[in-house]
Amino acid sequence: MDADTSNAGRVDSVLQKIERTRQARRHKFYLHDEKITLSHGSGGKSTHNLIEGVFAPAFSNPLLDAMDDAATFRVDGTDDIDHRLAFTTDTYVVSPLFFPGGDIGKLAVHGTINDLAMAGATPLYLSVGFILEEGFPIVDLRRIVASMAQAAKEAGVAIVTGDTKVVQHGKADGVFINTAGIGLVRASWLMGQAQLEPGDKVLLSGPVGDHGIAIMFAREALDIESDVQSDTAPLHTLVASLIEAAGEGIHCLKDPTRGGVATSLNEMALGSEVSVALDEQSIPVHPEVRGACEILGLDPLTIANEGKLLAIVAPGVADTTLQAMHNHPLGRDAAIIGTIQAEPPGMVFLRTDIGGLRVLDMLVGDPLPRIC
Amino acid sequence: MDADTSNAGRVDSVLQKIERTRQARRHKFYLHDEKITLSHGSGGKSTHNLIEGVFAPAFSNPLLDAMDDAATFRVDGTDDIDHRLAFTTDTYVVSPLFFPGGDIGKLAVHGTINDLAMAGATPLYLSVGFILEEGFPIVDLRRIVASMAQAAKEAGVAIVTGDTKVVQHGKADGVFINTAGIGLVRASWLMGQAQLEPGDKVLLSGPVGDHGIAIMFAREALDIESDVQSDTAPLHTLVASLIEAAGEGIHCLKDPTRGGVATSLNEMALGSEVSVALDEQSIPVHPEVRGACEILGLDPLTIANEGKLLAIVAPGVADTTLQAMHNHPLGRDAAIIGTIQAEPPGMVFLRTDIGGLRVLDMLVGDPLPRIC
């Protein structure tokens, strides 16, 4: 079997897997709600249900159905895997607009860069769409715009097209920002939620929960002193170094933003019809974040991150990948946190610190709305 | 002089023109406002000031500085004009969400398709970002999503990536939608706001003001019976037929949305350092729209359209282009409405029905906020 045939076979098998899991998910996640609730924006189970119950069936096409954070395609209409583009979008409604470690503008640039990076792409160009509320101070807008410009410059991407809308006072909340992004895919193999194989190792690039907890502490209602800062950061150079180190041993990259590590791994388990076994002790969490979660009854694994990534890699390159993470400033505290197993498909398990085993579900409800 | 040298010279001259007008505009449009007002979202003069005073200086780069509705570029980093991609974004905050002739979903698909088409591109892929207000009925969301899916299918584009955010009740207005789009540029020459030449003819593809007036009539506060329907339509097949008919005689295409024909032509006059002389009698306006404008003291030339385009073409191909418009269902009522002149740069003039001559400015203020 030559490389081309093998590749074509692999593409077919992936497409079949996507189709099977799509049908399974659609059956499982029929949407019964009559009105939108905050939990539909959590990034967790309700968001999943809304996507599978409303958006996915209406917009269905092979690129969307893969349900990765970025779509990848060639613009010449061929199926060739090389020289694909990645395309993604995210809207940012974070509250408050300014928080320790960042602001909505920085987040809007980093978040879309990261979705491109997770597709193995070098980010090239961003679009930006603003929704401004009547009465919003222009000095704050300038501050946000300057932060976006700086974040884009530091990451080597250009904001090349944009749009501005204004709505009446009371019909928005200061400013909402959408960014979409285009990147050039450097990975010449398939990566994504449908690519996990039993035996693969799960790597996490650093401590979880910083962004979500920083936002929570920044809310006016909470008068708590804290040193927790958002971890917002552009991850494309970390991804580039992982690709260089581990090549096609990298099966899937994902930044665990809304819904946290728990939700991201559940989505992958569903997308690849595998299970994920995690070792709780190995998952890095800053003590202050762990403390806040204990007080508030939150699970750090469901809290949003903006500068971390999960890498699912072939067992043979796990140590190389971990070493590459440790050598990068954004991966210094990386760890191997789990393993992919064949059975039971679609589930995530956590071996707890006290030796128990529990099912780790997606985020249910939304304890921290408007986190990004 | 061979073709390559001539082309390079033309690119240089265009870049110089963009740089000169950018500096002139920046000087002219310094932003003095302290807070965002509805007129900053009008698409007219205040929007222009906001863009030139806040966004353009912060994000400045050669692609953005051209200030066309879509950025065009090659992803391989070369300057070659062939095989460019077009990339654009628009956010939709129209109120009401459903109106005669369309809805926010249809508008969000058509609008972004049209921005790609105006760059001479075949639209390929769209992204969609939803902001949903807590409490929004899912039945209405399904209706909007179905409308988007149908509009995309009819236009032959795929929605390949998306995002959903939810904000608290009272922090948005039902639903806001952002779409970004990627297209493949079919024009192998430069088109855009910097490309107008004295002697060029100004063509308009049909009657103006339908969309804006339809929205106005649809507002609950106005209890007026009317047959006016939004003209929302995807213009990419019309553009394809114009490109086929007139080739590089087409210097600039623009869909006169927010701010209407008056604002679009003023932007072009500024971008190309030319003046535009319009003949009021030749500008098609439906009688009902004209009547509504007279009663309400509005100028149909500043009212938004969603299915019309302006084509600025070399005089030698004006008749051919007009004929191509007439042969297309979306250009049946097209007309030649004016001429590009060298002096005075940056101005638009209207020869009125009664024989006078008046300056036609961009839209000032915002008589019809949230039109798209």
Task: Describe, in plain words, how this protein is organized in 3D.
Two copies of one chain form a homodimer. By secondary structure, chain A is an alpha+beta fold. The first copy, chain A, has a domain at 201-359: PurM-like C-terminal domain (Phosphoribosyl-aminoimidazole Synthetase, Chain A, domain 2, Alpha-Beta Complex). Helix content of chain A is 35%, strand content 22%. Chain A is built from ten helices and 14 strands. Chain A has helices at residues 3-28, 45-59, 62-65, 104-118, 138-155, 210-218, 236-246, 260-272, 287-296, 318-326, and strands at 71-73, 85-92, 98-99, 102-103, 121-133, 158-167, 175-185, 201-204, 250-254, 275-279, 310-313, 335-341, 348-351, 357-359. Chain A has a seven-stranded mixed beta sheet. Chain A has a five-stranded mixed beta sheet with strand order 1-2-7-5-6, with helices on one face. In chain A, helix 4 (104-118) packs parallel to helix 7 (236-246) and helix 7 (236-246) packs antiparallel against helix 10 (318-326). Chain A is globular. The termini of chain A are far apart. Residues 1-5 of chain A have low confidence and may be disordered. At the A-B interface, helix 2, strand 2, strand 5, helix 5 and strand 6 of A face helix 2, strand 2, strand 5, helix 5 and strand 6 of B. Chains A, B: One of its GO terms (biological process) is protein maturation. Chains A, B: This is Hydrogenase expression/formation protein HypE. Chains A, B: It holds the Pfam family AIRS_C. Chains A, B: InterPro entries: HypE, PurM-like_C_dom, PurM-like_C_sf, PurM-like_N, PurM-like_N_sf. Chains A, B: Residues 197-344 form the PurM-like C-terminal domain.
